[in-house]
Automatic annotation (TrEMBL):
The chain crosses the membrane at residues 6-23, 30-47, 59-81. InterPro entries: BofA. This is Pro-sigmaK processing inhibitor BofA. The lineage of its organism: Bacteria, Bacillati, Bacillota, Clostridia, Eubacteriales. Keywords: Membrane, Transmembrane, Transmembrane helix. The keyword Transmembrane helix applies.
Length: 82
């Protein structure tokens, strides 16, 4: 194996590592968003039996979307103190 081939292999592995790292953040954000929205609807469904609901608007959707489960927990606790 020549030196040039080893250099190309190292560069290729470095680029593959960089692409994987760059795609990890949007995938995580997408999963958090899906989990957050589903939990908001579940919270509102179960909360309807107890006269408890969280209004789904752009602000609550962003909080639940970016933070996921901790965001929904924050919204529930915030609603209790209002």
């Amino acid at each position: 194996m020549s030196i040039e081939m080893m250099i190309y292999a190292v560069i290729g592995l470095a680029l593959l590592y960089l692409v994987i790292k760059l795609l990890k953040w949007p995938i995580k954000l997408l999963i958090n968003g899906i989990v957050g929205v589903v939990l908001l609807y579940i919270t509102n469904y179960i909360g309807s039996y107890f006269n408890f609901y969280i209004t789904i608007n752009p602000i609550t959707a962003i909080i639940a979307g970016f933070l996921g489960i901790p965001g929904v927990i924050f919204l529930i606790i915030f609603k209790f103190f209002l």
